[in-house]
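User: Please fill in residues for this 168-position structure.
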């Protein structure tokens, strides 16, 4: 029994270490999304984080399209973040102001480490089945650990518009 527990512990530790230090080609490709900040810039009053959302300009009716949301840690500080499995939830609103889709996650907490000057990027596929112009934005909700206590933070991305038509 003891050998089994030791073997299981070693396997879990190896998986944890392998997941923390692997090369991520998607992260490298998304690096272009991170805003460039001068080295001597002053940190934002809201903290060292910024958020960004990438939305296509057009899509066809009921055609899948991908939203890319990014949480940027612009500081050199490593933070312990607690959030849902997905940091962002996405809101889609029609031209009358009615919510068409609100994409959220279940309330289970995930704790992860975010190194300084890194990003958390999330990809979400969705579709809209009616012609029109839609407003899309995302909200990041998470907590960071400072001085042993968690501090709740909420960031909203810029609002983007997408045209849904018969042909993309």
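Assistant: Residues filled in for all 168 positions:
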């Amino acid at each position: 029994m003891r050998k089994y527990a030791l073997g299981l512990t070693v396997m879990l530790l190896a998986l944890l270490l392998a997941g923390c230090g692997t090369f991520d080609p998607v992260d490298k490709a998304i690096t272009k999304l991170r805003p460039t900040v001068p080295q001597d810039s002053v940190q934002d009053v809201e903290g060292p984080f910024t958020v960004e959302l990438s939305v296509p300009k057009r899509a066809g009716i009921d055609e899948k399209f991908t939203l890319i949301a990014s949480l940027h840690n612009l500081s050199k500080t490593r933070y312990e973040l607690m959030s849902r499995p997905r940091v962002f939830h996405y809101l889609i609103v029609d031209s009358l102001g009615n919510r068409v889709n609100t994409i959220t996650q279940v309330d289970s907490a995930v704790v992860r480490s975010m190194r300084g000057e890194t990003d958390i990027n999330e990809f979400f596929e969705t579709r809209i089945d009616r012609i029109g112009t839609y407003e899309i934005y995302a909200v990041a909700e998470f907590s960071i650990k400072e001085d042993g206590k968690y501090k709740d933070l909420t960031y909203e991305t810029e609002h983007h518009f997408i045209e849904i038509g018969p042909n993309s």
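For context: The domain at 23-35+44-165 is CATH 2.60.40.10 (Immunoglobulin-like).
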